[in-house]
From TrEMBL:
One of its GO terms (biological process) is galactose metabolic process. The gene is galK. GO terms for molecular function: ATP binding; galactokinase activity. It comes from Anaerobutyricum hallii. Residues 41-90 form the Galactokinase N-terminal domain. Keywords: ATP-binding, Kinase, Nucleotide-binding, Transferase. Its EC number is 2.7.1.6. Residues 125-212 form the GHMP kinase N-terminal domain. It is an enzyme of class 2 (transferase). This is Galactokinase. It comes from the Bacteria.
Length: 424
């Protein structure tokens, strides 16, 4: 469809039901309409009036399974109603992409090998996703795109995974009739982030963004993970999902993140295995005295977190399916306590005077008074916390958290039913 025709459709309200279906929250529909119109206009300014398609990929919220995925454990995760969108036109050679607020980038797809100079860049992610899809036998090709995202960068909602999934869906839609599976798109995103971007990560972020909805994932067979939709709406229990950006800096934290899987793998190596999933839980506990000598105490504590957390995910799913929301909240609290005490990813030991997430968790306890719960969200060390807040005190909770962390720090979110998708 031509950009002018698309823009007129949004202006005339033609796509209001579509936006309501994707973003759920009635209060954001006007914002989303204007956002799409502005994105189309920005594309036109850069590339002219053309036949285009629109793609979307959501951010994610980890509900359960903190740092379990990279050891082939279980997670409970959801796509949320914040996303990256792209206005896209097919192009013969290479990728020309402009993300709002960033310089234009050009990526030749003639060379699909990792490049040292592209580590930590969007160019690396695009090249990596394309390389994986081609390796798996799919067609790839060029495109020009304007991208805008309201998935907060560095705020634990996984903006990088949304970008990877967005790229995978564009290549699937433009060159493969939309037939690349959401699981493969997620795997291509993880491959790009690990090999081309240079960041060790599991598969949860990409899978939650790509598949969508509230899902249970078991990564025991990482090439064919078990995925199960959990049919629960938190609002049915008069609670809202809140994500609070505590504004901590992620600078210089890559080694902190990397140390978690490295130390867990040290424990697995004691048994001659690669990851904790391959170890019997009882055998681990029996051998803790010897493991401490080989891997150190923090590695032991982090492994303890993993064994209990991956089992806890099953309990969370069972509680939700039984509509036992109070039981579910107690499991969320147990997850948060384990992350704080055993996984130890609430603050960085590099700068002990900066403990924004710990302050947010402590203040949440004061505000919620046991009626709601909060926990570390995502990778940790800096960034966001998650809270399940009774609806009658959401406004109070939001105001109090923003008094501490600033305007728009607290996001009241909805679970989106779609993962990566072609919008129009």
């Amino acid at each position: 469809m031509k950009t002018t025709e698309l823009k007129k459709g949004f202006q005339d309200g033609k796509y209001e039901e579509l936006l309501r279906d994707i973003y759920i929250d009635e209060s954001v529909l006007d914002y989303q309409k204007e956002r799409y119109i502005k994105a189309i206009e920005s594309f036109e300014e850069l590339f002219g009036e053309k036949e285009v398609e629109i793609y979307s990929a959501p951010g994610r919220s980890e509900i359960g399974g903190n740092h379990t995925d990279h050891q082939l454990g279980r997670v409970l995760a959801a796509s949320i109603n914040l996303d990256a969108i792209a206005i896209v036109a097919k192009k013969e050679n290479g990728v020309v992409l402009k993300s709002e607020g960033y310089p234009m980038i050009n990526v030749s797809l003639a060379d699909l090998l990792p490049k040292k100079e592209e580590e930590g860049t969007s160019e690396g992610l695009i090249r990596g996703v394309a390389a994986k899809l081609k390796e798996e036998g799919y067609e790839i090709g060029g495109f020009e795109a304007y991208v805008t995202s309201d998935v907060l960068n560095g705020a634990g909602m996984s903006s990088s995974a949304a970008f990877e999934v967005l790229t995978g869906n564009i290549l699937s839609g433009l060159y493969n009739e939309g037939k690349v599976s959401p699981v493969l798109i997620a795997q291509a995103g993880q491959y790009a982030e690990n090999v081309f971007f240079g960041k060790p990560c599991g598969l949860m972020d990409q899978m939650a963004s790509s598949v969508g909805n509230l899902i249970f994932i078991d990564f025991a067979d990482v090439k064919n993970p078990v995925i199960k939709k959990v049919n629960v709406n938190f609002e049915d229990f008069d609670h809202s999902l809140c994500i609070i950006d505590t504004k901590g800096s992620h600078a210089d934290l890559t080694d902190e993140y990397a140390a978690i899987p490295e130390e867990m793998k040290k424990v697995a190596a004691y048994f001659g295995k690669e990851v904790l999933h391959q170890i019997d839980k009882n055998e681990f506990y029996i051998h803790i005295p010897e493991i401490r000598k080989v891997a150190g105490d923090r590695a032991v504590l982090r492994a303890m977190h993993w064994f209990e957390e991956t089992d806890r995910v099953i309990d969370q799913v069972n509680a939700l399916e039984k509509e036992d929301f109070e039981g579910f909240k107690s499991l969320i609290k147990a997850s948060g306590d384990s992350s704080f005490k055993y996984l130890q990813n609430v603050y960085s030991v590099k700068n002990l005077s900066r403990q924004e997430m710990a302050v947010g968790l402590a203040f949440s306890d004061v505000i919620l008074k046991g009626r709601g719960v909060s926990r570390v969200h995502g990778g940790g060390f800096a960034g966001t916390i998650q809270a399940f807040v009774p609806n009658d005190i959401v406004d109070i909770y939001k105001k109090n958290m923003e008094d501490i962390f600033g305007q728009d720090a607290c996001h009241v979110l909805k679970i989106r039913k779609y993962g990566g998708m072609k919008v129009l």
